[in-house]
Amino acid sequence: AQSVAQPEDQVNVAEGNPLTVKCTYSVSGNPYLFWYVQYPNRGLQFLLKYITGDNLVKGSYGFEAEFNKSQTSFHLKKPSALVSDSALYFCAVRDKNRDDKIIFGKGTRLHILP
Amino acid sequence: GAGVSQSPSNKVTEKGKDVELRCDPISGHTALYWYRQSLGQGLEFLIYFQGNSAPDKSGLPSDRFSAERTGGSVSTLTIQRTQQEDSAVYLCASSAHFGGGTGANVLTFGAGSRLTVL
Can you state the percent helix, strand and coil of chain B, rounding each to 5? Predict the structure, then answer.
């Protein structure tokens, strides 16, 4: 069965600094990987996904994520954080080789300090 | 429809009562998911429907929980004999699960049904 780990409950970053939100995964086959964001009092929104091809995936709002197969990681990054990036971020995985469900990590709360 | 619709948006019930939560997915989406979001618990998978296949019920926390999807569209999550620990936001999501399009596997979430069990 697949699993996702987000080791940090909360990440604090100063505005303008680069940010990283960590995610590691476990699947029996090859993964589909996703990041979603939940802004305060708003629904969950898709940010980006890795399906195949280039390991560096670019998504909405200037975010990107790098798929690292050897480390089974898919960390979310942004070169320069904005206060408006403060939100709850979820990593998710699905096993590509099976008709399987998408499961989510516990989420990481990102605080961007002005 | 244009998005995933869930009803009711808020439900307050007494312990021991049954509740039904409804999800109307995006038309044409073959995959439908129910998740539960509690404080500090992240997004907990409950159940997954894919086309005409038997649903994956592995995430349902007890036999008080059940769900059905009629005609490959609308889904209802039923919680019988509600308990206080059932209090949470129940989220429904749908996707076009297969295919190489940019929308494949991307979940569109509803706004959720907030359940409070007194």
Answer: 5, 50, 50
